[in-house]
Amino acid sequence: MNLKKKIRIIIGSLNVGGTEKQLVQILNNLSEKKWNLEIITLKKGGKLKNFLNKKIKIKSLEINKFPKIISLIIYIYKLYKIFKRNPKTTTHFYLPEAYIIGMLASIIANSKCKLIMSRRSLNLYQNNHIFIKSIEKFLHKKVDKILVNSKAIKHQLINDENVENNKIKLIYNAVDFKEIKREKEKLKKSNFRISIVANLIPYKCHNILFKALNLIKYKLPKNWNLCCIGRDNGLKKELLKLSKKFHIHKNITWIETLDVRNILSKSNIGVLCSNEEGFPNAILEYYASKLPVVATNVGGCKEIVKNKKNGILIPKNDEVKLSKAILFLFNNKNIAKKYGLSGFKTIKENFFIKKRF
Q1: Any alpha helices (H) in 88-175, and if so which ranges?
Q2: For the chain, what percentages of helix, strand and coil (3-state, to nearest 5) are there?
């Protein structure tokens, strides 16, 4: 069978993150449909490359350490040569860094290919980078299509960045019910386990969760357990210190794994307490394991979490409301089960990735 249209993906790396995990699922499904796929990463490595179909080509442009402006010029030049060599290949940019660098290279190369950008988060990252915001507004006029994964992101693009409605396409994240990898994790015996799937980065607000648990630690079973599942981006030392201050460190398990489903199957609640989100994969993963969800009402969270129907929505940065929601689900197990089953039904009907291919 002949290969279908070729697609070139440009992204920063294939490290474990919500966007990257979603991309791997999409590309593996496209590969099964005989699409010709190529991934170009700005940085080398990333655990997720090992989970890509072997037919998918991966090329890294990683360069030696240079001052930022020099590195930027080198990246643009390398991508410029790629666009010149293959000027008609549809190109899809993921995340701001790849979008800005890749689009500038395509403009310089006068590329005639279709250009697509995926915005996977709210634009709050622009607040401290006015220059970047101006660049992106300029590039939005040059790109052919912008894909978003929540109505909240679409709203921002239209109202804050002057993007035409017909240039934006909403495609929600989706989840596969198959496990990515099977590992045996050493979990503490517990009568009540809370899980949070989030890399250790500031906006995921693990500190708020710790404060909430400190408020209710004596109202939970003595052996309650919190599983923090995610990559350490430099915050773990600070969070460990905070957990010891609250005397909850012995109740916390730190895990970096791709086998999220295996851990969630042994959990009672899934928590997402971020102060910003686009459309979090974590919520889909919680529901795939039939867990009730407590989530902050930010970004696209309310587009899947329906308050008091399949979970509980709370304000951001509010440890009191978070603690009350966790305690409510602990004390009302029948309601918690009902929320989890409702969430599972929702994603099975509307967010199952196999239905999209």
Answers
A1: 96-108, 130-140, 151-160
A2: 45, 20, 35
Q: pLDDT tens, 61-89?
A: 988 778 888 999 999 999 999 999 999 99
pLDDT in tens, 207-234: 999 999 999 999 999 999 999 999 999 9
Q: Identify the CATH assignment for 193-355 out of 3.40.50.2000, 1.10.760.10, 3.30.70.2740, 3.30.420.40.
A: 3.40.50.2000
Show the tokens assigned to 163. Answer: 């993007």
The rounded distance, in Å, linking the Cα atoms of 139 and 167 is 13
Please state which CATH number belongs to domain 6-170: 3.40.50.2000
Residue 329 per-residue DSSP state:
H
The beta strand positions in 111-220, using DSSP E, are 115-119, 145-148, 168-170, 193-197
CB 228 within 8 Å of CB 206: yes
Instruction: Count CB neighbours of 73 within 10 A.
Output: 13
